[in-house]
Specification:
alpha+beta, 4 domains, Rossmann fold, five-stranded antiparallel β-sheet, six-stranded mixed β-sheet
Length: 682
């Protein structure tokens, strides 16, 4: 039966959708697997002629005979057509041919006449099918007079249908099979002799024909296990033993009576027939197993591709799985960019094609059709090429090298098409995911850049304005002789404090950049646990004048740390506690020691942090997400602390204290004991 793609509209709605007076492309889809290829050809035709196109499915009585998979396939093709820019319609009709002809005739009366029809031509099998006129000829006969052009596209391959005798695997013979045939006949002979010895002679003469069952069973078992030739060997051996041991004259070849000759001949015929049936059953079972394996292959491809993080890795995994299951050489031919007309990449790279195979490869890519072995009556090449296409264009070509001993059938062709379709979808999905991730990364970078600019324009400008303001007042009051020593000292101290804060902001921005880029080299040495604390307290003395700092640390341990970077962490956390604690409140520094870790704990007595934000506060610019305009800063201090501790294999985290305030825990993985020191308190 021919498959016809008619891109059309309902007659009474034709002129309401399109306005292509030069004509449109017309077609109809069904559930045939290669409908996607024809949709692509129809879309290209419409683009070439610069006209509109639409897709219709004509629902005849045959629609209700389709299984669930076939009906879902039709819906998928209609959805795909919409994604490709076509109008889609689903209508009922008694006959595909009559419906198409009536649509064409109706279109000629409207502003959108049908000028092109793309037809998928399927190969006919059987004498009766070939005698019946095709849909294509009927349509061509009725619409050619109106100037409608028909493009015929072969969409089915010439399959090699294996005859029944090939399924018997006549070449499949081994020493193991011959040995099994001999052993099974020998076992049948032993059972026959045991039966003869266990019953009286008279009874044996009456029931001696029962031994034929033993030998027939041996023939069946052998053919089921090892195929036809071992089964025939067991049949011949059984016939020989029966003639020699159980047919008069005994222990001689031949027979005394004509009836014995008839009986032994019937036995031979039965043994041979059972061997053939057994081997055919074995071959059929193997075919079903192989078919099931191929069906599972599609699931396996989708599963293993989900583990891939790049197109190259996905092709590598799929290639290995296909070669293992199909036991054939597989290659993927990929263009340099999406939908590029030239194929310039192959996977695996060691794949070699002769000139004739290369021509078939480019024909497959350019014409978007199956080429090579089994397609267009081509059996001289070993390669079969399947186009990998999606709704957005071509992805590449899948090539399979068919071994000489493999005979193709229609199911193999459908499997190849399904595999290429799935691989195309997987590679497109990976490409789209990569583009989405890149777009997301770009957006995040842009967001960070905007946040940094916001920080620079607001938080860095604030201390600068204070410096300028304090120095301007100092200058004006000095010129007017109104500047007292006390006021001068206050203005200079204000300018100095704001300058130091501005320096801290700029340092934070530079530090996070250097840490993330790896420019800072960490030098970890054994240091006293009290050393960095004392250094930070001394450095921040002016920031702590309005707070009651309590230090409860015993100098009993040494920590493997980078002293300067650890001081930076303690300073940032302590500065954070000062910012978010009201004047007069306590700030406490103490330690927590376990057999494996040493931790500094810095506690403030402020309002605490919402539970859902305890992790987010260590992200860059996190504070900028709040409506916090009172406390100045770039939002980089805690992010710098986290980066430094990770470089030292340590950790930093925050926790709310049950009473009030927040505790920041800074942990180091390596410590050792030192001589006890007196308690340090401040």
């Amino acid at each position: 039966m021919d498959i016809l793609y008619v891109l059309c509209m309902l007659p009474f709605k034709w002129s309401k959708v399109m306005n292509d007076r030069d004509g449109i492309v017309l077609a109809c889809i069904d559930s045939y697997p290669k409908s996607k290829i024809l949709l692509r050809i129809a879309a290209n035709k419409a683009a070439e002629k610069k006209c509109g196109w639409a897709v219709i499915y004509i629902e005849t009585a045959a629609h209700y005979k389709l299984n669930t998979e076939g009906r879902e396939q039709i819906l998928q093709y209609l959805k795909l057509a919409e994604e490709m820019g076509a109008k889609t319609f689903h209508i009922e009709g008694k006959s595909i041919t009559d419906s198409i002809i009536s649509f064409v005739n109706e279109s000629q009366k409207s502003c959108t006449p049908v000028k092109y029809i793309v037809i998928g031509k399927r190969r006919k099998d059987g004498i009766l099918a070939k005698l019946r006129p095709s849909i294509i000829k009927k349509i061509e006969k009725n619409v050619s007079a109106q100037g409608v052009k028909i493009q015929k596209v072969p969409i089915s391959m010439r399959s090699h249908i294996r005859p029944w005798y090939e399924r018997l695997s006549l070449n499949d013979i081994s020493i193991r099979g011959i040995s099994f045939a001999c052993a099974s006949v020998f076992c049948a002979y032993i059972l026959s002799q045991s039966l003869q010895a266990s019953i009286p002679v008279v009874e044996w003469r009456i029931n001696s024909y029962n031994v034929t069952a033993f030998f027939l069973i041996a023939c069946v078992i052998t053919s089921l296990r090892h195929g036809l030739l071992p089964g025939l060997i067991s049949a011949i051996l059984s016939f020989t033993i029966m003639n020699y041991s159980y047919v008069p004259p005994l222990h001689q070849f031949g027979f005394e009576h004509f009836g014995d000759g008839i009986s032994i001949s019937i036995f031979l015929f039965s043994a041979v027939l059972l061997s053939i049936m057994g081997s055919y059953s074995r071959a059929s079972n193997e075919a079903l197993v192989n078919k099931e394996k191929r069906s599972q292959l599609l699931y396996q491809i989708n599963r293993i591709a989900g583990e891939a993080h790049s197109k190259k890795q996905a092709l590598f995994l799929i290639h290995d799985e296909l070669e293992k299951v199909l036991d054939m050489k597989v290659a993927f031919f990929i263009p340099g960019s999406f939908n590029q007309p030239i194929i310039n990449s192959v996977f695996p790279k060691d794949t070699k094609l002769i000139e004739s195979d290369r021509k078939l490869l480019y024909k497959c890519w350019e014409k978007i059709k199956t080429t090579g072995f089994g397609a267009d009556r081509e059996f001289k090449t070993k390669w079969r090429f399947e186009p990998m296409i999606t709704a957005h264009g071509g992805v590449g070509v899948m090539g399979i090298e068919i071994p000489p001993h493999v005979k193709l059938d229609s199911s193999f062709g459908r499997l190849c098409y399904a595999i290429s379709d799935q691989v195309a979808s997987i590679t497109e999905r990976i490409d789209l995911t990569h583009k989405i991730n890149q777009a997301q990364i770009t957006a995040e970078k842009e967001q960070l850049r905007s946040m940094l600019l916001s920080s620079v324009s607001h938080d860095l400008k604030t201390p600068l304005a204070s410096i300028i303001g304090a120095l301007s007042v100092h200058e004006r009051m000095k010129k007017s002789d109104k500047l007292s020593p006390q006021i001068a000292e206050e203005l200079i101290e204000t300018a100095l404090n704001e300058a130091q804060r501005l320096d801290s902001f700029i340092t934070n921005i530079l530090d996070i950049t250097r840490i993330e880029s790896g420019d800072i080299e960490f030098k970890r040495q054994w240091e006293s646990c009290i050393t960095p604390v004392q250094s930070v307290i001394k450095r921040m003395k002016h920031r702590l004048v309005n707070h009651n700092l309590i230090v409860d640390i015993e100098d009993n341990d040494e920590i493997k740390m980078d002293l300067m970077m650890t001081e930076q962490v303690l300073q940032n956390v302590l500065d954070n506690a000062v910012k978010y604690s009201t004047q007069g409140k306590e700030i406490k520094i103490y330690t927590e020691v376990t057999p494996k870790n040493f931790s500094y704990v810095i506690r403030d007595y402020g309002l605490g942090i919402p539970k859902e934000k305890l992790l987010a506060i260590f992200d860059k610019y996190e504070r900028l997400k709040h409506t916090d305009t009172v406390v100045a800063g770039t939002g980089l201090g805690l992010a710098i602390c986290k980066a430094i501790m990770e470089k030292q294999n340590g950790t930093i985290y925050a926790r709310n204290h049950p009473d009030s305030g927040v505790e920041f825990v800074i942990s180091f993985p390596k410590r050792r004991k030192r001589k006890n020191r007196p308690l340090i308190a401040a």
